[in-house]
UniProtKB/TrEMBL annotation:
This is S-adenosyl-L-methionine-dependent methyltransferase. InterPro entries: SAM-dependent_MTases_sf. SUPFAM superfamilies: S-adenosyl-L-methionine-dependent methyltransferases. The lineage of its organism: Eukaryota, Fungi, Dikarya, Ascomycota, Pezizomycotina. It comes from Lecanosticta acicola. Gene3D superfamilies: Vaccinia Virus protein VP39 (3.40.50.150).
Length: 390
């Protein structure tokens, strides 16, 4: 019922807005009537339908509906609440006022949940730390890092806060303009609070399609090429001796594929690679292939980005990486299912405080996909390390 109601609300609202714009543009009376009808349907679904749960108070009718839903089978009379319970303004909905809406971190990956105890930021941090540990990035030598799909630059802030001594240059790329601007603000805020590290040559984030280096602006290219040109103010022992391409849960989203970026990074900079990615199992049946296509398409992972383990190794070799240096570590056990459990628990909490399910519906679907993959084994979550040929 909730899903149907939300779909009606969204469809009616979108239809109303569309027809309103048509009315303004063309001056037709028919779209205006449709606009009014859609607007009325939207308000009816949102405010009138819930009144059956508490006819005496339209302001708490939605509270009453949710209270009935969450106490079913638990309260007196198999979930039946007294009229006072339904009409009372105060329940547990005031959780909303106690939410921390300015979070300390903005991680966004599937996480490594082995020791996270259901805590999302910890799982995301542990995944990134495992990538650094397995690859040896930032160990003992000055390092330059290029991070495509940098999200909200949480990985960079983590390195600056916990391993600043060897981070010489950092450039992040993000195709999303909103996130790219947010990243720049976060970096400025961090520098204002902590001061710019003396050894840092470059600390930048750009809006760019990381999958297509040929589309990058001159500013992006020049900044990245500064990886290879240490400033005269940097002593030789502080000059970047190692260059890493770090890709956290992003390569499988690239509509142009992985090859252009990997080839460019290796040929131009000689970067080593550490990434998390997905692999499909060999010899998928027709049903498995169809279900995989449906789930990947639903979460905007291009179907042509699917690769088996051997295909991935061959891709890295074509891009110039040494076959003998390639490591592929399966982390599915500590990724898909525990992440799906977290999404399920978080969704339940969100619903209990009255949050709109429409706002988080994509994450609910994402959780379903993760649980299916963890059960079926058609998709595996892996960590990849590769070094260029010498």
């Amino acid at each position: 019922m909730d899903v149907i109601k939300e779909l009606i609300i969204q469809a009616a609202t979108i239809g109303a807005i569309f027809n309103y714009r048509t009315t303004i543009t063309k001056g037709s009376e028919t779209p205006l009537a449709i606009f009014c009808l859609g607007l009325a349907a939207s308000y009816f679904c949102r405010f009138v339908l819930p009144l059956r749960f508490n006819p005496t108070n339209p302001f708490t009718s939605e509270f009453a509906r949710r209270r009935l839903q969450h106490t079913k089978g638990k309260g007196r009379g198999n979930g039946k609440l007294d009229r006072a319970d339904l009409s009372d303004m105060y329940g547990t909905e005031h959780t909303y006022f106690n939410l921390k809406l300015d979070p300390d971190t903005m991680w966004e990956n599937c996480g490594y949940w082995k020791n996270a105890n259901g805590h999302f930021p910890t799982a995301c941090r542990d995944l990134f730390e495992k990538m650094l540990t397995v690859s040896g990035a930032l160990d003992n030598e000055p390092t330059s890092i290029l991070e495509p799909g940098c999200g909200c630059v949480e990985a960079a802030l983590h390195m600056l806060s916990n391993r600043p001594q060897n981070l010489v240059n950092y450039v992040g790329l993000n195709i999303n303009k909103i996130q790219a601007q947010f990243c720049q603000e976060r970096l400025k805020d961090w520098q204002s609070e902590h001061g710019k590290p003396a050894q840092t040559q470059t600390l930048r984030v750009f809006k760019a399609d990381a999958a297509q280096p040929e589309t990058w602006s001159n500013e992006v290219r020049d900044t990245i090429h500064s990886f290879m040109q240490p400033s005269a103010s940097i002593s030789p022992e502080k000059a970047p001796a190692r260059k890493w391409l770090i890709c956290v849960d992003c390569l499988y989203h690239f509509r142009a594929g992985r090859e252009k970026l990997l080839t460019y990074a290796k040929e131009e900079f000689g970067t080593s690679l550490v990434a998390t990615d997905y692999l499909i199992k060999e010899n998928l049946s027709f049903v498995e292939r169809w279900l995989l296509w449906a789930t990947l398409t639903g979460i905007q992972i291009p179907w042509w980005n699917r690769l088996t383990k051997q295909q991935y190794i061959d891709l890295l070799v074509r891009c110039g990486y040494d076959r003998d240096s390639i490591q592929i570590i399966d982390i599915t056990e500590h990724s898909f299912t525990p992440y799906a459990d977290f999404l399920s628990a978080q969704t339940k909490k969100w619903d209990e405080i009255g949050g709109s399910m429409a706002a988080i519906r994509p994450f609910v679907h994402w959780g379903y996909c993760l649980r299916y993959w963890g059960w079926a084994g058609t998709l595996r979550s892996v960590m990849i390390v590769a070094h260029p040929k010498k």
